[in-house]
Amino acid sequence: MTEDWTEEHIPDQSGRVAIVTGANTGLGFETARLLAEHGAHVIIAVRDVEKGRTAAGRIAGEVTVQRLDLASLDSIRAAASDIRADHPRIDLLINNAGVMYTPRQTTADGFELQFGTNHLGHFALTGLLLDRILPVPGSRVVTVSSTGHRIRAAIHFDDLQWERSYSRVGAYGQAKLANLMFTYELQRRLAAHGTTIAVAAHPGTSNTELARNTPAALRVPITRLAPLILQSPAMGALPTVRAATDPAVLGGQYYGPGGRAEARGYPRVVTSSPASYDFATQQRLWRASEELNGVTYALDRTPAR
């Protein structure tokens, strides 16, 4: 039987620079804490700088705070410029921040909030920082998805911004499916360079603030069952941390809890939905993301197969 992977398995991260988005609370905070406690210089990239500083003060290790609002392309570009000026190399970019089941809202650039924040914002940030990541041997881009990528999830190219009708659950499913498709397509494009890999992870059912917008019809049963189905943020962060640090990780893998229905447990390689592996949709989403963001990656185009 394979040994459970715990924080004791995290290798020494000394000398590595790691960016964790949305790290002032919940899964992001635990991810940043574990990386910093194992020697990494962690950049907490958050919308609220004061909350970020408070979080940094609770972490033992080298931690700095960077303002980043993933719902604003101007903020993303400013944050990327600041990070690039201060750090000639980036070892880990962990695309963790997200919103879930929000009422219909738009980002500063007019994108539906869940798709714009969870996918488009991270797509833009990764592209703007890639030249600091790509030259670093062993570097990784880890993007956090969700089991929600299976629920009412599809990439609605005819209405990516949910302007005709809106479903909180459907929009979240689209965004989390997009996170996986982005990872798989990014890995395909990175493979020829041989230095950087793209990996995905999900936290299972973790007790965090992310679910604060859950519709009332779902919130009540979840609250009642919480002791049975929810795990701590520290456990929920382990799939992301394993994806970021385990030497055995391969590009294009997806990590999640190993228990029943991937809800709880220690991290292992899991399988995403059949839809997430659709090659043509991955490429189409990539092109749409570049066009919407105005961010083009300095990577070779994927050859047709």
Automatic annotation (TrEMBL):
Question: What are the recorded GO MF terms, alphabetically?
Answer: oxidoreductase activity
Q: Which SUPFAM superfamilies match?
A: NAD(P)-binding Rossmann-fold domains (SSF51735)
Which UniProt keywords are given for this protein, alphabetically ordered?
A: Oxidoreductase
| Superkingdom of the source species | Bacteria
Which protein family is it in?
Belongs to the short-chain dehydrogenases/reductases (SDR) family.
Protein name in the entry: SDR family NAD(P)-dependent oxidoreductase
